[in-house]
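Much of what follows relies on a compact textual record of a protein's fold. A record is reproduced here so that you can trace the correspondence yourselves:

. . .
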Amino acid sequence: MRDKIQSFQDKFICFLYITMYNKNKEVVILKLIALDMDGTLLSSNLEISKENLQAIQTAKEAGHIVMICSGRAKEDALKLLEEYKLSLPVGASNGAIVYVDGKVINSRCLQNDKVYKLAKLLEFEGFPYKLYTNKGVYSPYTWQDQVMQAFEENKHALDVTLEELERITEKQKKSNLITDFQKIEDVVNNPELEISKFFILTFNAGHRAQLLSMLQEDTDIMVTASAPTNLEIMDKNGHKGNGLKQMAAHFNIPIEDTVAIGDNFNDVPMLEAAGLSVAMGNAEEDVKKLCDVVTLTNNEHGVAHAIEQFVLKQTSSSK
């Protein structure tokens, strides 16, 4: 009997937590809103518009939980949020790292032996890569030289400018978010490091397809992409869908009351897991096809539009 009473109390508390009343005394179901960063929350200039900031603030004031679910490293995502004075839970490294209120509440990292084998494969095949860890981003000391060489060899077939390439290679270096290493053994033999993601540049479409085919034979990993010129490797459970589920469980929000907004293929797991999936207007066409609705582009404050239309307007009319 005591267990039944406790169970009822827990469910009642959970109900109170995920519901509230609006000014008309109508019941409002609280939502967990998961936002991708690049190509979604951020404009093409890598800025968060005042419209998006206001929509996030309005959603938070209404009691909804807004989280970031990004392929970026935790430190990178938090630094950007700090620039805009935003305090949000974060699913980093494509959801492999789930971070709330200064604590990592869940992590799905790659085993060191797997990291070693993958690194050796990438080095043998000539693919530049970086490692996303619990201590920031690590890259081989030859990273920039490798990137420039790969770019020069394939620039005739690329839709990437030299300026964009320099941003890829220099952005994190200038902000002290990246650490060089001499050889992969230095990383995997460091007991303080946990590796959550490989970020790989793939400028040659044919070589990319061959690498993807090799990687997909490994059932312990998940391979995705956030742009046509990269591949990303995580643990098989280290994806945005799992990151969304972990965050929903933490806040006692049913998965059907979650909203995910994204633009690229690494967003697919969270878009498939969410109660409502929203594709950006600039999203890949295949991503748009699998989503419930499509919002405006990242340069048209598509996140703000989605929050206003599919969260605030919907919940304010709920009874």
About this structure: Confidence is low (pLDDT under 50) at residues 4-17.
